[in-house]
């Protein structure tokens, strides 16, 4: 996370319910950073990537309590995030590949 920007070009609230969960995406240049967090209830979150501006393929790194994985994604992808109780996930989506 040393590459995490401190100034953003765009911020979007993707999902949320007060006291339950929040999913926020922030963009700097061509990269998106997404954070998802839940309360004491574990839950599965369906995360469509429609907010990506074009259909080009990108590289996503997903960091969850269960581990890290690399995925190829585009704006038609819907990710399934399994959030542990009192946990969450972070994602970094690199520019067009």
Describe this structure in words.
The chain has 97 residues and is mainly beta. Helix content is 0%, strand content 61%. The protein has strands spanning 10-17, 21-28, 31-38, 43-48, 58-64, 67-73, 78-83, 88-96. Strands 1-2-3-8-5-6 form a six-stranded antiparallel sheet, with no helix packed on it. Strands 4-7 form a two-stranded antiparallel sheet. A hairpin with a 2-residue loop joins strand 5 (58-64) and strand 6. It is globular.
Computed Rg = 13 Å
The backbone outline, from C-alpha atoms, is: globular
Task: Give the biggest sheet.
Answer: 6 strands, antiparallel
Order of adjacent strands in the largest pleated sheet: 1-2-3-8-5-6
Summarize the structure in short.
This protein is mostly beta strands and 97 residues long. The chain has no helices and eight strands.
